[in-house]
Amino acid sequence: MLRRGDEYVVVQCKHWNAFQVTHTDVHQLLGIMVNESATGAILVSSGEFTRYARESAAKLGHVWLID
User: Fold this and answer.
1) If you placed Cys at 11, which of 29, 36, 42, 58 could pair as Cys (CB 3.0 to 4.6 Å)?
2) Residue 42 CA to its chain's centroid (Å)
3) Cα separation, 8 vs 51, whole angstroms
4) So what's the pLDDT on residue 10?
């Protein structure tokens, strides 16, 4: 969890056994963001994100994907 001023961002760092991270993981992080009343979320992965994962993050807003 990161805090600065009014910002509150949840961060998830995982080492996936799969080469690509799916949109399901993005939606799970969004659920955590909502439950924590966070203003944003960051998902850090050792693999690549699928096109649908990137599209989901862009559509949802305030979700950053780092591979």
Assistant:
1) 42
2) 4
3) 27
4) 96
Q: Is 27 helix (H, G, I), strand (E, B) or coil?
A: helix
- The one-character DSSP state at 21 is E
| Termini Cα distance of the chain | 19
The answer to whether residues 39 and 9 touch, using CB atoms and an 8 Å cutoff, is: yes
Q: At 60, give phi and psi (nearest 5°).
A: -75, -30
Q: Are 57 and 63 in contact (CB under 8 A)?
A: yes
8 Å CB contact between 6 and 39: yes
Position 14 scores a pLDDT of 78
CB 30 within 8 A of CB 59: no
Q: Is residue 22's pLDDT more than 90?
A: no
